[in-house]
Amino acid sequence: MLITLCYLYLWARWGRRPAALVRTTVQRLRASRCSFTFCGAAAQPRDARVCLSRGGRVFCVGESQCIDDLNKWALFLVSPFILEAEHIAFVTESIWVQGENLQRPSSSSDTIVKWSDCCLPLACRPGDPYQLIARASVDDFSKLGVAFLEDRLQMANGLIPQKIVSVHLQESALKELKDQASDTQARTLQPNGESPVESKPEPDAMEHMGRSDSQVLGSAPTQGKGSAPGGEPAGESDREVGSVEHCHLHLSSCHECLELENSTIESVKFASAENIPDLPYDYSSGLEGIADLSLEREGRRVNITGKAPNILLYVGSDSQDAQGRLQLVRSALADCVDTDCYTLYHLSPESALRDPWSDNCLLLVIATREPVPEDLSRKFMAYLSQGGKVLGLSSSFTLAGFRVMSKAPLQDTVQSLVFCKADQSRVKLSVLSSGGVYEGGPDQLLSLGKLQGHLDSEDEDRLIVQVPFGTRGGEAVLCQVHLELPPSSPIVQTQEDFDLLKSNNSRRYEVLKEILTTLGLSCDLTQVPALTPIYLLSVAEEIRVPLMQWLGKHVDPEGVIKSSKLSLKFVSSYTSEIEVTPSAIPVVTDMEAFSSENFDFEIYRQNLQTKKLGKTVLFAEVTPTTMSLLDGLMFEMPQEMGLIAIAARQTQGKGRGRNVWLSPKGCALSTLLVSIPLRSHLGQRIPFVQHLMSLAVVEAVRSIPEYQNPILTREEVGGSLS
């Protein structure tokens, strides 16, 4: 009631002055953490109170809108989210309109308000709508809102604003983002010129080259504005030394940035993909001249469908029970599939409805007894119709006329199952039943695939069915037995049942692997290699001497440098008695003791042509992730050392956000530390560093004899993928 009276008072006082009304409302009510929304009248949030209406658009106040998960947002700023007390964080939702359909603001050009002039962009999330998080002062936020209401707000490159809503960024999300930014984003530091060897790194925008551990060492072969010969980013002019002004980074919608990005991508395409035939999205549809696109590499099937190697796990609502079930399903699948080939991710109900997951999913696992909501069921069916693969584990999800019938006497009891493999052989085993059986008409039974499982009883109730779906190779294997649960599961009722399930555990895995293989996955497991020590290598003696002097001053009495993620213990030599763990890794400083079949340091040294980059190498045969190796050194060690971490294999490779990075043997795995002045041309366009790096790698490969002009024939496609 008090808020309503406040609105009436403001309206009576300010009347036809919308800018003053909006600004005063925001100033007086923002301390209450309510949410301010500018949108079309039809999109007004439920229970929100309208303060101002202009031409079919409204300014309203409602309950606080919070953002607590920033993992799916792409960060723009090189610093974490730091909001001054007088600033407001807000989300702008826009649609992308191009060409003749582009509608310009209706007002004259001298009253146009440019979005980028009134706020500092923080992050974006592409999609429909295109979302941008930004921060602005109260005055600028109000200015943006009024311009939106009066249809004179302009965004870059065809983006048309549809909604502006203030948000509260929760502390947990900010902390998580800060931790992520310390690993993957450039840092906003003070530009500076050359520094002596003994000084700390001069504050530039410090960035890990390769957000996903996978970037290959290589220096940019070209130079231009903002670059110096040798592929090193150039510093700023003398007049800019000491400047601490914080600069905006260009948005992905910026016209200038898009032109640069497109030209870079086209260069990469021209350099690396001439006359390479396009492979089909769905390998079940075939390709002329290639009989089987499930190629073999070292005896394993290779996915060339174009889809990311993701296995998505849907376990229903976000309850404690669901989280426990998620861990059980993840553990069972990880014991069956090659973790060098696939990653397992949780698919939440919200993400299943919001995100384009179907384009990046090799297998969808549905493991929940809860009924699948209708809107989600439609999503899953659409995925199947596009050629998707589904594994149902004790789930109510069905298709093609089948239904799950409950039989209470079977629930959570040990039953004898007869399982028919794809080659018509049979496996008999004891399993834990969910209490459901599949029933379908004669037409459905005739359409079943070869995989089937039924009770070893007179009724032969169906507990496992393989159901083809659609014309593009989609199929589902549905199970009403707990293949995901170990014998030690709490729902196992007696010691006798436990003993029976334990004696059949190997056959449980045999059935699960048969199902996964039929659905197109590889179940040829590779042994996880043991971690190895790191070797500290320098390309030149003039780097080695000051490096060892610096280490002598910065290690503790036991020769250790500690960081938040691991401890590096510097030793002159390595013996088997020295333990190597993910949190404590020895670093061998004696270069004479180094030898490797996977990394020829002499060839590396002979071909390195940079001034700084890659001069000091941390090399490991097997390490958790190269990202962590630099953690305790990158902001302490002088930039002249040119630090890079290289590994032959990773056991816990990290991608962007919470993504996993697959790191089988044979990949080029490295993390390179690059210092880029934030005020430079390149520093203003940090995202393009990845494209320049990719182009440098392609050109480096093309400099090798017989790789200058690669043209692949259809017969060579398989070889090129390995």
UniProtKB/TrEMBL annotation:
Domain of life: Eukaryota
Feature: compositional bias, Basic and acidic residues: 197-211
Span of domain BPL/LPL catalytic: 602-722
Ranges of compositional bias, category Polar residues: 182-193, 212-225
Molecular function in Gene Ontology: biotin--[biotin carboxyl-carrier protein] ligase activity
Location of region: Disordered: 177-242
Assigned keywords, A-Z: Ligase
GO CC terms: cytoplasm
InterPro entries found in the cross-reference section: aa-tRNA-synth_II/BPL/LPL (IPR045864), BPL_LPL_catalytic (IPR004143)
Keyword Cell wall biogenesis/degradation annotated: no
The protein's name in its UniProt record: Biotin--protein ligase isoform X2
Source organism: Camelus ferus
